[in-house]
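User: Modeling request: complex.
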Amino acid sequence: MQEVAIVGAAMVPFGRYPDQEAYQLGARAALDAMKDAGVGLNDIQIMSCGQLMATSGAGQRVLQQIGQTGIPVVNTANACATGSTALREGFMSIAAGMHDIALVVGQERMGTGLTYAGDESEGYVGSGTMPAVFAMAGMEHTSKYGTTIEQFAKVAVKAKKHAAGNPYAKYRDPVTLEEVLNSRMISYPNTQFMCCPNTDGAAALVLMSMEKARQYTTKPVRIAASVLTSDPWTERDLILVDVNTLTRNAAKEAYERAGIGPQDLSLVELHDCFATAELLHYDNLGLCGEGEAGRLIDDGETTIGGRIPVNASGGLLSKGHPLGATGVANVVEITWHLRGQAGARQVENAKVGLAHVIGIGSACTVHIMTN
Amino acid sequence: MTQQASQGDPAETGPRPIVPYLRLPDENGGDAYLVGKKCPECGAIYLDSRIGCAKCSFVGDLPEVRLGTEGSLHTWTIVHMSRPGVPVPFVAGIVDMKDGISVPANIEGVEPDPAKLKFGMPLRLVTDKAFTDAQGRDVIRYAFRPAG
Ligand SMILES: [Zn+2]
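Assistant: Request completed. Predicted assembly structure:
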């Protein structure tokens, strides 16, 4: 396998873009990532593009905006892991030696309101809304480990504290624990501040073989592992979505491939679609001992300045979650930290970063990057 | 799991189940009950229509089994936002059935108050009318209430 490096990274600030199409947001991110890498479209040999809610040709539409060079385009749709699956496609094409320079784009425009399982049984035979599903997964954690509602709520306080330093996040105002707990209840224990908002956005990366990368930069960010898993059969998975097992499987494989352990990580961007989810993933990614996630947030270990900062970007709770863009954007964030370009939210002396995304139904990606 | 749910044959009248794995009393009476598809190889039970087993990769017919009425509360949430028109708040939960399968359900007969909900609390199956559909048919759902 060829070593794969990130040479260009960019995103458009997550927010609302009512007058632009998703592929136009993607095109802007792609142009910025290529500029960052010092390449043009004529240098790009393959493109992969993640957009979940697209008719067809999401990536081709990006090229129709900025230059049709006739390169192969792969489009991905893989739930919330749509963008990170596109990244894995680009990674594989270079790792396999098929190409030397790849463009990866993730893009999405979101609707408004609740994401729910829209059939007539909703609300009469339990609830399949995303806030409810992740609430039940969080309550399972309280049952097993004694995690408290306040500990879940602290995730939102931390997210907003971090987001204050991130101009790419839409919601940057600080909130107190009381404000989080007293905001509108969506699905107990997830209040409004504990649910990721709907935003539009796009992000892009330029990948190169390490050999090629050294012609363009003295600071290549190496992708040490790119792993994708789906649900193995587990006891209740088809009834209560199991977000844990496939994350654990992905993390284990990624650590093995990268030859590192969780103790080596400088920072983590993980899938905090809901505040309850974040604490589950502290356990799942091995950031703490089994069941110790609540203590980790209590002790401030996952706050910037702590032992293992999580979601220095402000996370999905502050950025929102444009499905196709999310998995590319969190690798962009890690890249900036590893280059020392993350501004006010910079994690000092960052050397190794992990990016995690999970999509229900199911797909989980873990990427590990080093500088 | 309700993609095969009958939305109502226009020729049919009378009550219909909200999900296909709920069976209503027929002309001979009796209680409503849940059914599952049980793998003859490993015993895993499923609520949906299938051609094989996700647990052990058995391929073939999974015979239908009648599920019991007893279960316990595995996890829960109190839902304040649902599909438009659904009364809120309500308690949604995952119920572990004694048969060895879990089912989603609303939990009735308990106030939607975190202090009143206990993990593992014993529950029993009940059925009632959820709503009347556009064709005027009563749509029947199952739920669980505290046992005893
Ligand atoms: Zn089986």
